[in-house]
Structure formats: structure tokens, C-alpha cells
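Section 5: illustrative case.
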């Protein structure tokens, strides 16, 4: 007979005793509780189908669970598994779809009952969970059963750390990838949903292990994760392409909330007491402090799309979720009067556009791309959280560059480079991204640019590096000659006494044969006295050591802190003779200090150690290399030398001059 309840379910006479007409939830629950225990597979299947449908109702679900119905569901699931693995009765039905339907209805009913939260997921037995997992891992299993099993596991993972560990251990990444490659869209969706649930519940280390645990299928996995990331990010496209509507009350309120959050504590007097003109003037002033270009009508700054309303969304998110950082950013820059203030609103709008370009928001998915970011899968609001980190990076980089409004584009170019370089490292979490991007400051960016420029000029190619090493001895000898020449020319020094800063002038120079140091007092205005006028001499052979800085005896005299620091940077002494007398120097400049200490070290048979030596060597090497590489312009330099050809089989190609003479 037909069961006329609008669902067009048909009941046979053989099962009418088990399925009474629907009246009250308790009667329905009692009837279905009996029906699912029937030995007649047709009755069991129809009862489970009806149960799956009615379990959406909370009252019915409560009645059924109170009758220990979930225990029967567990029993059916385990029984169906045993049948599937060799029961004779089941083998007879293996060619039909009945058993698959029983399993599907059972899992559907179970999932609907668990949705009401009457029973905790943690009360499930490990045996039942493993059976659900086994349905996912089986190759020959009905697609609807696998889809429902994946959905159950997806809901199970976030509920308990213990359940997460069990599912992560039992469901391999390779198996999920297999489901992602089938043509069944619903099965693909549930497999991806379970993968995302596992990634969200995992720690950073576990997330890394999940993503990189499948080496052979790395390309497929990377592509699927890229597609998921791309689709999720493209949800921002509508806001990105929508300009601000100045007549929208909601959008105007969002814009005003930025001003109120930043300056609500500044104004003790309520603006309602002001005239309309006064309020407009105050608002325009505050929007100017926020960094809007059109402070009288800030909505005009958001007319450009992209980034459109997405920039407003990001600013509001930043102000609401990190209010301290937002207030600090705005107030720190609005109170500056040295023209170095960083405009928050203008920076936010441009930064949003940069992030959209870097993350390809609004672009269609590539069929082959694999560029996904592991940290994307650990955040519910990835784009907004990334913006919060990067807008603070803008302020930090702005201060490092001591930028003004004229440097705005330059600063944002550096920020783009900081973000791009850090993303290329594939950080596994936003915290790690934040750490790495802040380490990559402006000075580091300059160093990287210099290194890359050298690579582009091929000055770091292996053959060029070998050439540098061959040129070094020759250029170091050139520097030595320059140092000795400077010592032969001599330098005018001032004597420093403990009584007064400057006492007398004296001159010191090296003899042309590099064997004697001549020195003596000179009068004011004498710049280069002849060597004969310098009465004192120190043979180079008698020189024992060179002292610098605080090792010198004349720097140990009492003096003021600043004066002593200046003296330490320029002081050096020559220890000579068997009595170990000292000739004390205070160089007029750091440059002269470097030249003299290098020259004296050479006379003592030691290496030149001043910072000027390395600077001069780098300049000379750079110039020499560029000159030598001029003939190789537009010719790529190989990293390895060409192979030496094999010797000829004979040497009979030599010309015989004896025959020519005859």
C-alpha cells in the first residue's frame, strides 16, 4: 500500500507491522528503532532511509537517541563491514546496490543525529571510527558511502584533539589525493573539506608534515592546494572591484568608524555641541591625520577599483582586531611635524592593491600552477591578517628609510619586495611570516639588491671569482706602494698634552729608501718641511711594534670622556729601540690613521689591517674586472671551463721544412 505522507514512500505488507503511520515523534522513533533491527534487508534499508530523513528534526532525534538508537547505528555500521568482508549472505547481494544503500542510509542517519549535539563526538568508540576510516580508504566502495564517511570525519576532527590524532594517523594524504582525482564532484569536495579540517586543527609542525608527507604526489597536491587557495582568495574579488558608494549609509559608517576609533579619546568635548561647519572642519582635520588625500571627502580616495571597498574592509578589520596597533600607527604619525609622517589610509589603499597583485586576487586559476602558501590554510581570515602584518611593516620600513611624502612610491616598492621575498620562502604560519618579513629590513634589501646586481653583471660567476683571486696580489702590491709613498710624503701631527687640547705641531716622514723615520717640531704654517730639517730619527730596523687605540701609553692619561673617545680612534704609537721607547701619534683624520698604520705594519713585515685597505681593494678590483670584461659584453660566461679535447691519434700533421729547403 502507499504511505501517503507526501514523501511517496511505499510500504509492503511484510513490514507494515514495523512501520506505523507517522503521528508523534516518539511513535516514529519506536517504529524506526524496531525497523532498523529487522533481519529483512529491505525493511532495514527502508527504515534507515526514513530515519535519515526524520533525524533532521530535533524532537525526533532526541526521542530516537533516548531509545539507545545510536548504539544500533554503530552495530549496523560494524555489521555491514563484516558482511562486506566475507559473509555468505552478503556475497549473494554483492552484485546489487542494496548493501551500499544500507551503509549510506546508516551513515546519513548517524551524521544527522550527531548534528544536534546531544552526544559528544568523543564518546565514539575507536573501533567505530576506524570502520568509518576504512570506508574512506577502501578502493572498491560505493561513492555515496565514501562521501558520507569523509563528511563524518570532517565534523569529527575539530571536536577533539584525540580524534584529530586518530584521523590524521589513519587517513593518509595519498588517499585523500586519490579522492581529489576522481570525477565525482561531491566526493572531491568532501575530500578537500577533510583535508582543510585537518590543516586547521594541526599545529605548525603537524601542518608541515601533512602538506609535505607525500613526495611522489607532490605536484598534484600542490596544484589542488593552489586551486583551493585561488578560489578562496577570489572571494575578495567582488569587494576589490567595487568602488565606494558615497550614498551608502553602511559604507559611510565604516569610514567614520576609522576616525572615531583613532581619535575618540582625544576629543573630550562631544562634537554634537559644535555647529555643522565646526564638525565638518574637525572631521576633515582628523581624516587628514588618518592619511586620506581628500580629507574633506575621504570617500573619493576609495573610488579607484581595484582595490575599491576591499581597502576599506582591511582598514576596518585592522582597527577592530588590533586596536592598539591601529591607534599607535595613526597617533604616532599624526603627531609628527617633521614631514616624515606615514599616511595610514593612503598606505592601506596601495598595500591592498599590492597584496591583490601578489596573491593574484581576481585572476582565473591556472591549470598547471602549484604556487600555494602553506600558511594560508591555518587562518580563517588570511587576507585580512596578512594585511595587518604588512601595514605595520609599511610603518616600520617608512621609519627605516626616513621617508617623506615624496618617497611614498619608493617605500611601497621596498615593501612589495619584502613581502614577495618572504612569501618565496613558503613560511608555514603567519607568525613565521611576520618574523621573517621584519628581519628583512631596508638595509637587508639593499644588500640583496647589490648582490643580485653583481650576479647580473656576472661578477660572481666562478671564472670571474677566480680572476678576482688572481688580481688580488697585484692590487694589494699597488696599495702597499701607495701607503709607503704617503709615508714618504709625510704628515703634519699635533701634540696632545694633559694640560691643553692642542700644544705644538710636529712632522713625520719616511726616508725615500724606507729605512729611517724622520720627525721633528715645526712652526705653524709649514706644511711639507724638507727631510733635512727634521732632526730626530728612528731606524726602521729598531722598530719593535705598533700600538693602536687604548694600548697606546698617551691615551691612558686622564681626559674627558668625549675627548678620550676621539683620541682612541686616531691614536697609534711606535715602540722602538731596546729600551722600548714610544713615539706617540694622534692622526688628524681617520683616513690618515689608516694610511699610517698600514704603512707601519708593512715596515714591520705584517699585513695591512685597516678598513681602508679592504675598501681600496674592492674599488680597484671592481674597476679592473670591468675593464677586463669589456670585451665579453653580451657573452655569457660559463661556470666551468670547456673540456680539454682528446689528443690527436697521430702528430703527422707537422710541416716538414727539410723538403721545402731542397
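Designed sequence:
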Amino acid at each position: 500500500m502507499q504511505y501517503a505522507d507526501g514523501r511517496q514512500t511505499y510500504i509492503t505488507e511484510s513490514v507494515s507491522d514495523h512501520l506505523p503511520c507517522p503521528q508523534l515523534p516518539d511513535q516514529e522513533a519506536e517504529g524506526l528503532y524496531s525497523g532498523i533491527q529487522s533481519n529483512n534487508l529491505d525493511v532495514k534499508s527502508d527504515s534507515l532511509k526514513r530515519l535519515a530523513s526524520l533525524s533532521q528534526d530535533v524532537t525526533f532525534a532526541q526521542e530516537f537517541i533516548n531509545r539507545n538508537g545510536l548504539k544500533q547505528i554503530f552495530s549496523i555500521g560494524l555489521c555491514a563491514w563484516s558482511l562486506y568482508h566475507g559473509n555468505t549472505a552478503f556475497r549473494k547481494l554483492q552484485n546489487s546496490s542494496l548493501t551500499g544503500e544500507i551503509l549510506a542510509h546508516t551513515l546519513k542517519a548517524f551524521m544527522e543525529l550527531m548534528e544536534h549535539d546531544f552526544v559528544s563526538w568523543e564518546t565514539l568508540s575507536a573501533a567505530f571510527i576506524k570502520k568509518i576510516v576504512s570506508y574512506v580508504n577502501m578502493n572498491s566502495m560505493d561513492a555515496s558511502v565514501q562521501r558520507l564517511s569523509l563528511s563524518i570525519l570532517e565534523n569529527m576532527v575539530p571536536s577533539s584533539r584525540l580524534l584529530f590524532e586518530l584521523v590524521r594517523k589513519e587517513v593518509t594524504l595519498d588517499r585523500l589525493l586519490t579522492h581529489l582525482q576522481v570525477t565525482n564532484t561531491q566526493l572531491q569536495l568532501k575530500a578537500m573539506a577533510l583535508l582543510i579540517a585537518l590543516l586547521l586543527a594541526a599545529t605548525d609542525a603537524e601542518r608541515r608534515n601533512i602538506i609535505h608527507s607525500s613526495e611522489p604526489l607532490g605536484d598534484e597536491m600542490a596544484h589542488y592546494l593552489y586551486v583551493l587557495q585561488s578560489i578562496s582568495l577570489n572571494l575578495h574579488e567582488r569587494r576589490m572591484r567595487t568602488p565606494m558608494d558615497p550614498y551608502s549609509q553602511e559604507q559611510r559608517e565604516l569610514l567614520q568608524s576609522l576616525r572615531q576609533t583613532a581619535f575618540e579619546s582625544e576629543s573630550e568635548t562631544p562634537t554634537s555641541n559644535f555647529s555643522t561647519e565646526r564638525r565638518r572642519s574637525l572631521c576633515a582635520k582628523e581624516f587628514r591625520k588618518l592619511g586620506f588625500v581628500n580629507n574633506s571627502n575621504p570617500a573619493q580616495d576609495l573610488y579607484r577599483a581595484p582595490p575599491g571597498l576591499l581597502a576599506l574592509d582591511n582598514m576596518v578589520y585592522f582597527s577592530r582586531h588590533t586596536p592598539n596597533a591601529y591607534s599607535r600607527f595613526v597617533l604616532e604619525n599624526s603627531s609628527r611635524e617633521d614631514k616624515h609622517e606615514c599616511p595610514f589610509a593612503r598606505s592601506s589603499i596601495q598595500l591592498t592593491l599590492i597584496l591583490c597583485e601578489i596573491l593574484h586576487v581576481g585572476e582565473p586559476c591556472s591549470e598547471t600552477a602549484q604556487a600555494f602558501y602553506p600558511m594560508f590554510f591555518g587562518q580563517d581570515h588570511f587576507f585580512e591578517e596578512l594585511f595587518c602584518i604588512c601595514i605595520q611593516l609599511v610603518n616600520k620600513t617608512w621609519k627605516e628609510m626616513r621617508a617623506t611624502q615624496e618617497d611614498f612610491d619608493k617605500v611601497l616598492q621596498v615593501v612589495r619586495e619584502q613581502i614577495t621575498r618572504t612569501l618565496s620562502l613558503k613560511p608555514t604560519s603567519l607568525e613565521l611570516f611576520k618574523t621573517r618579513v621584519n628581519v628583512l629590513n631596508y638595509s637587508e634589501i639593499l644588500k640583496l639588491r647589490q648582490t643580485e646586481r653583481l650576479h647580473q653583471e656576472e661578477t660572481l660567476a666562478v671564472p670571474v671569482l677566480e680572476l678576482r683571486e688572481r688580481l688580488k696580489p697585484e692590487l694589494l702590491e699597488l696599495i702597499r706602494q701607495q701607503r709607503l709613498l704617503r709615508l714618504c710624503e709625510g704628515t703634519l701631527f699635533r701634540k696632545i698634552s694633559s694640560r691643553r687640547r692642542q700644544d705644538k705641531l710636529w712632522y713625520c716622514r719616511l726616508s725615500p729608501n724606507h729605512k729611517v723615520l724622520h720627525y721633528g717640531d715645526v712652526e705653524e704654517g709649514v706644511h711639507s718641511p724638507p727631510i733635512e730639517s727634521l732632526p730626530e730619527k728612528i731606524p726602521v730596523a729598531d722598530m719593535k711594534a705598533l700600538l693602536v687605540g687604548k694600548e697606546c701609553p698617551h691615551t691612558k692619561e686622564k681626559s674627558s670622556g668625549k675627548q678620550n673617545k676621539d683620541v682612541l680612534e686616531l691614536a697609534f704609537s711606535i715602540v722602538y729601540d731596546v729600551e722600548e721607547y714610544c713615539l706617540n701619534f694622534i692622526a688628524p683624520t681617520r683616513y690618515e690613521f689608516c694610511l699610517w698604520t698600514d704603512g707601519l705594519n708593512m715596515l714591520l713585515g705584517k699585513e695591512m689591517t685597516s678598513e681602508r685597505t679592504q675598501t681600496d681593494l674592492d674599488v680597484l678590483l671592481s674597476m679592473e674586472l670591468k675593464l677586463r670584461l669589456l670585451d665579453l659584453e653580451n657573452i655569457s660566461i660559463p661556470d666551468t671551463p670547456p673540456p680539454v679535447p682528446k689528443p690527436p691519434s697521430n702528430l703527422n700533421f707537422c710541416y716538414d721544412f727539410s723538403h721545402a729547403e731542397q
